[in-house]
């Protein structure tokens, strides 16, 4: 390739050329991004008035354009500084990481010396302790010639790779600009979706797309965004899924793209969980313990070169390449994030506080666009990511197993939890603020745990996980605001809690039955994220484009407000491709599935199931709000209609059992499968044709009535106004529509949906059901 240029950050250049030695994932206490900023500010405050911060620097070497921002320069003493915030003593920073820090500082030094025509320069590597703000400074003075020689050596080491990457980007963009649609012609609804995605990407706008099953959402979103990559200068495309089945669909769609365009220069990477990729789960992640961590960075270049040449990097390919070169498959995949064009993985990679894909995009300045499949699940998934809890039983167990030096602080934390529990009037108690004594006890425990893991980095065992739990809770408490609830919940600790009451029924959080035996009680201190948009708003504003799509997203304000999407976010509701006459939707007006009415209505409910089956024999799914309700209905059906074949979802089904459940749905088969609404068989299940001809939904999907649920409703009402249904009706009916969506999977399918509750006649309920349903 002639006439090329390649822009690389100082950080990327040094990570590529200066990393060597072992992979070492042993715990070294690290500072958060906020603590890093605080550390920098503390250093800046101690410098002279003429101290220059965030100094932009840039240099050229051949076709390479190298740029970055140096932390600080003090012209009076001709000193350039690189500031790194750490926790604990400097000895905990591995040698190869310190070497990388020096490489970055030396590269900034070369750029500064060339820019200002300096003969020499003092370099200072400043390590700041996040807790004490104490500085440890390492210094050396180098000539401009020495700095330039080191800079040129790094550029030479990177030049061939940069030329290859520039050629790849040019070929990729040229191919994508003329990419044909893999299936020849887009379907009508699919075309609407594709056009909306492309238009939103061109405007750097977020899009909420509600699109029914059957229009081809996966290709309808992937194809236009692939076409937008060259026109919008996108570096990467992330296809994020809330469930594993979505990743399979994405990879199948990308395979179709490759079949249409053989030789397409597009690198596709699937991210997998560490537990799935680890070859030696019994070994620690460092060179002294695991052979695939020993010399990892020395063998990485060859593995990386083979991987980018392979391009199709599913888990099997990653494993094959990694083992051929003697490196860890999981961490090879993490390294390949930098060089992939399309990344397929779980939503946590983009939305978790420590999500690797988003973190790298921010650090490297990538233009990253995201597609989020089954996005109706994103609210609950991100709520989990930004919530934390700590139980009295956990603290007591940790104190009992802890070294002597930790027992005092941990027992103190346990005592304050017990004291707080005694003072609360109910078994569930919201806490506007954590009592000072409890907050201080948690801080003391965290400080002691931090000191211990710093002093014993190679021998922390279960202490480390408990430290992470406490630290996560502390960080959320420090940011507690109206977006979250803090509460204390009392329950039995020494016996299994009874099953929570089913949806629409009362939940009794008092599990003590009048007992005063504190030893038999457990307490759970929680921070529960209610509005994840508090944390996600900045991400949506930073990303180049995001499309969130699902068959059940509406009403539009629900995801927009709870996820913190920009006000400019576009909304698309794609018309269903089905003939409304193909789906018969009926309401059982005589039935109530409220908790207090269930026993009385059970005979009528199972008789309705049997009547529908007798009139239209075939395979059906019947959805219930809990396993308890499911089991009652299955037993009653077996009693009153023993001739009707049935099978049920179990409480803890493994993959083989789930597959066996679905295998009962054969073409032309007959029977009823009982399942829980919102569970494994209520979405992401494809049973086309006569494998499934109908569904019964014996619930509105509402969450259990409880003091906690009431707090959630009150908080959402306070933030967004009353009567929106955000706490219960909207998410409940999303589950209902998802479950009903199992019935029609193609335009030729026909089927029945029974809504088994008279409340489905209410206008506010019907307003949240698909407009194309003709309810009788």
UniProtKB/TrEMBL annotation:
It is an enzyme of class 3 (hydrolase). Signal peptide: none annotated. Residues 176-433 form the Helicase ATP-binding domain. Keywords: ATP-binding, DNA-binding, Helicase, Hydrolase, Iron, Iron-sulfur, Isomerase, Metal-binding, Nucleotide-binding. Its EC number is 3.6.4.12. The keyword Hydrolase applies. Pfam families: DEAD_2, Helicase_C_2. It comes from the Bacteria. GO terms for molecular function: DNA helicase activity; hydrolase activity. SMART domains: HELICc2. InterPro entries: ATP-dep_Helicase_C, DinG/Rad3-like, Helic_SF1/SF2_ATP-bd_DinG/Rad3, P-loop_NTPase, PDDEXK-like_dom_sf, RAD3-like_helicase_DEAD. PANTHER family: DNA REPAIR DEAD HELICASE RAD3/XP-D SUBFAMILY MEMBER (PTHR11472), REGULATOR OF TELOMERE ELONGATION HELICASE 1 (PTHR11472:SF34). Belongs to the helicase family. DinG subfamily. This is ATP-dependent DNA helicase. It comes from Pelomonas baiyunensis.
């Amino acid at each position: 390739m002639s006439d090329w240029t390649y822009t690389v950050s100082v950080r990327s250049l040094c990570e590529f050329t200066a990393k060597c030695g072992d992979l070492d994932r042993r715990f070294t206490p690290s500072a958060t991004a906020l603590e890093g900023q605080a550390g920098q500010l503390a250093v800046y405050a101690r410098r002279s008035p003429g101290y220059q911060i965030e100094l932009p620097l840039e240099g050229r070497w051949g076709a390479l354009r190298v740029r970055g921002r140096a932390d600080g320069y003090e012209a009076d003493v001709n000193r350039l500084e690189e500031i790194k915030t750490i926790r604990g003593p400097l000895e905990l920073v591995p040698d190869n990481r310190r070497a990388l820090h020096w490489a970055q500082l030396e590269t900034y030094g070369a750029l500064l010396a060339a820019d200002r025509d300096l003969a020499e320069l003092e370099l200072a590597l400043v390590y700041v302790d996040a807790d004490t703000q104490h500085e440890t400074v390492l210094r050396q003075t180098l000539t401009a010639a020495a700095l330039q020689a080191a800079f040129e050596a790094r550029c030479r080491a990177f030049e061939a790779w940069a030329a290859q990457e520039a050629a790849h980007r040019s070929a990729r963009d040229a191919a994508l600009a003329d990419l044909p649609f893999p299936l020849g012609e887009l379907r009508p609804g699919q075309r609407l979706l594709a056009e909306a995605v492309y238009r939103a990407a061109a405007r750097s706008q977020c899009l909420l797309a509600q699109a029914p099953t059957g229009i081809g959402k996966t290709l309808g979103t992937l194809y236009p965004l692939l076409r937008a990559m060259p026109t919008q200068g996108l570096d990467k495309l992330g296809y994020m899924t809330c469930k594993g089945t979505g990743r399979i669909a994405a990879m199948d769609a990308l395979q179709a793209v490759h079949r249409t365009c053989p030789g397409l220069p597009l690198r596709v990477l699937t991210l997998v969980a560490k537990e799935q990729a680890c070859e030696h789960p019994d070994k620690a992640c460092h060179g002294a313990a695991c052979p695939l961590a020993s010399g990892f960075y020395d063998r990485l270049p060859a593995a990386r070169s083979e991987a980018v040449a392979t391009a199709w990097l599913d888990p099997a390919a990653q494993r094959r390449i990694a083992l051929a070169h003697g490196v860890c498959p999981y961490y090879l995949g993490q390294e390949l994030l930098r060089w992939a064009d399309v990344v397929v993985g779980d939503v946590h990679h983009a939305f978790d506080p420590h999500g690797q894909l988003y973190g790298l995009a921010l650090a490297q300045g990538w233009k990253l666009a995201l597609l989020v499949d089954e996005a109706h699940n994103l609210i609950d998934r991100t709520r989990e990511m930004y919530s934390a809890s700590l139980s009295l039983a956990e603290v007591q167990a940790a104190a009992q197993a802890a070294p002597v030096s930790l027992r005092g602080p941990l027992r103190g934390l346990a005592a304050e939890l017990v004291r707080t529990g005694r003072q609360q009037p109910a078994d569930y108690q919201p806490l506007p603020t954590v009592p000072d004594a409890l907050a201080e006890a948690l801080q003391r425990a965290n400080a002691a745990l931090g000191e211990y893991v710093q002093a014993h980095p190679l021998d922390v065992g279960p202490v480390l996980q408990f430290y992470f739990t406490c630290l996560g809770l502390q960080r959320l408490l420090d940011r507690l605001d109206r977006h979250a609830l803090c509460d204390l919940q009392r329950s039995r600790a020494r016996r299994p809690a009874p099953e929570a009451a089913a949806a629409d029924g009362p939940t009794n959080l008092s599990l003590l039955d009048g007992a005063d035996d504190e030893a038999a009680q457990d307490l759970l201190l929680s921070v529960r994220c209610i509005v994840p948009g508090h944390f996600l708003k900045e991400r949506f504003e930073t990303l180049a484009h995001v499309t969130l799509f699902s068959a059940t997203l509406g009403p539009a304000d629900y995801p927009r407000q709870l996820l913190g999407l920009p006000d400019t976010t576009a909304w698309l509701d794609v018309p269903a491709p089905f003939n409304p006459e193909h789906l018969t939707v009926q309401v059982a007006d005589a039935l109530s599935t409220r908790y207090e009415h269930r026993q009385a209505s059970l005979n009528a409910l199972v008789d309705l199931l049997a009547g529908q089956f007798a009139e239209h024999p075939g395979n059906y799914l019947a959805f219930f709000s809990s396993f308890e309700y499911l089991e009652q209905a299955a037993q009653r059906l077996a009693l009153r209609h023993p001739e009707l074949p049935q099978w049920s979802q179990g409480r803890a089904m493994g993959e083989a059992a789930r597959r066996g459940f679905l295998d009962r749905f054969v073409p032309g088969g007959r029977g009823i499968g009982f399942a829980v609404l919102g569970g494994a068989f209520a979405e992401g299940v494809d049973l086309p044709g006569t494998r499934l001809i109908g569904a019964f939904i014996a619930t509105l999907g509402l969450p259990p009535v409880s003091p906690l649920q009431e707090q959630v409703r009150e908080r959402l009402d306070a933030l967004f106004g009353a009567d929106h249904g955000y706490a219960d009706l909207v998410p409940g009916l999303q589950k209902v529509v998802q479950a009903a969506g199992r019935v029609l999977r193609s335009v030729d399918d026909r089927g029945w949906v029974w809504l088994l509750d008279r409340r489905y006649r209410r206008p506010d309920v019907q307003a949240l059901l698909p407009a194309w349903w003709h309810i009788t």
